[in-house]
Amino acid sequence: MLHQTKGRITRDNGAAIDALKKRALEWDVPLTEEAKGFCFHVWNSKATLIPDEMGVSIEISSPEQRLLQTLQGSLTELFEECLLCPKWDEVAEGALAPGMSLMQVVAVTKRSEGFTRVRLEGHDAERFGTGSYHFRLLIPRKGRPPCWPRIAASGRTVWPEGDDALNRPCYTTVAYGENWLEFDIFRHDGSPTSDWAAEEPVGRTVGIIGPGGGACPENDNLVLFGDETAMPAIIRMLQEAPGNVRAFLQVRREDLCELAADARVSLVEDMGKALEEAEIADGAYVWFAGHADKAKAARAHLIARGVAKKDFTAAAYWS
Ligand SMILES: Cc1cc2nc3c(=O)[nH]c(=O)nc-3n(C[C@H](O)[C@H](O)[C@H](O)COP(=O)(O)OP(=O)(O)OC[C@H]3O[C@@H](n4cnc5c(N)ncnc54)[C@H](O)[C@@H]3O)c2cc1C
Fold first, then answer.
1. Does the CB atom of residue 250 touch ligand 1 within 6 A?
2. 257: which of 67, 88, 214, 239 lies 20 to 30 Å off by Cα?
3. Which percentage of the chain shows pLDDT scores above 70?
4. For 169-210, how does the pLDDT look when each residue is reduced to its tens digit (9 = 90+)?
5. Ligand 1: which of 113, 135, 136, 170 to mutate, judged by most atoms within 8 Å of the beta carbon?
């Protein structure tokens, strides 16, 4: 089923289409010119801008309501920056931010020296286990009542600010079932999320928003490199990859948990060095995630080695 909505900008000096062209370049997403108008393709969704003498009509279509609302909010923000205020036929004013769900914390368990596993329950938890692996965890500041991001009358999502601002780090769904999901927090110094987990938050409500950020690459030959923050994603890929997988993990031995018994996993001291030394067969897919500097170096190394951009991911998981 395709979800659709329409909007209108009642004056046009070319600014709306110029802004859309600029955004397509910045985001490196396609902007095509069709008979009807200019089409912007992102998040599996499409926005078409149709100019006429009186202004610009906007049509958005998407396979998911949350993606439709995300694109609607994003376009509203973009056009408002150019002092153009789109009027939409429908806005879910007051609804939680697109893709956001409220969940109850039902268990917090120490898995190893470095990892804490958190189990959440909520009616649509399973949504976070299918498709993309990742979500943002939304935690209110200590001592503050929750104030969640909501859709405003304009179509934009308004995020709480100041004392009500939320901590919103990314995590990976590592296990899921009917109405529940689990994720692993790597405990490190100065981490507000680790401090929150140490407070035994069982019974509290948190927000999660997503899913997004990719899943298991579709390739029969995967070579994976990651640190502790990437380990949950690597656990998922080792479970789901249909073909040959090798994983190089830069973690402490005691934090390997169930991966210690997996012959496909090697413990390494430096994942950057491991990447440089690894044999990578033609057509294999390389996935690398960790500190931003290491991801940048990995990207440069893979390009220099002649690996095509379509054949690798080098992602910054923290900085
Ligand atoms: C797509 C994606 C998926 C991710 N999945 C997971 C996951 O499943 N589990 C997980 O634990 N992390 C995961 N991460 C990493 C996580 O989002 C970051 O580590 C994040 O900074 C944690 O937020 P925080 O509240 O602990 O700390 P922040 O407030 O973001 O940072 C506080 C301080 O901690 C430092 N810091 C952040 N990460 C680390 C680290 N790993 N080691 C040492 N210092 C650090 C920062 O530099 C900063 O100084 C993921 C990141 C991405 C982008």
1. no
2. 214
3. 99
4. 999 999 999 999 999 999 999 999 999 999 989 999 999 999
5. 170
**Beta strand 175-177 pairing with 180-186:** antiparallel
Q: Is 94 within a domain?
A: no
CA nearest neighbour of 62 among 79, 77, 42, 81: 42
Tokens 């993606």 correspond to 67
pLDDT tens across 55-109, in order?
Answer: 999 999 999 999 999 999 999 999 999 999 999 999 999 999 999 999 999 999 9
Question: Of all helices (H) and strands (E), which one includes residue 300?
Answer: helix 292-304
Query: Which residues are paired to 193 by β-bridges?
Result: none
C-alpha to C-alpha distance for 68 and 164, rounded to whole angstroms: 27
- The residue from 29, 57, 88 where one domain ends is 88
Nearest residue CA, atom 18 of ligand 1?
318
The whole domain housing 226 covers 221-318
Distance between CA 185 and CA 7 in Å, rounded?
A: 41
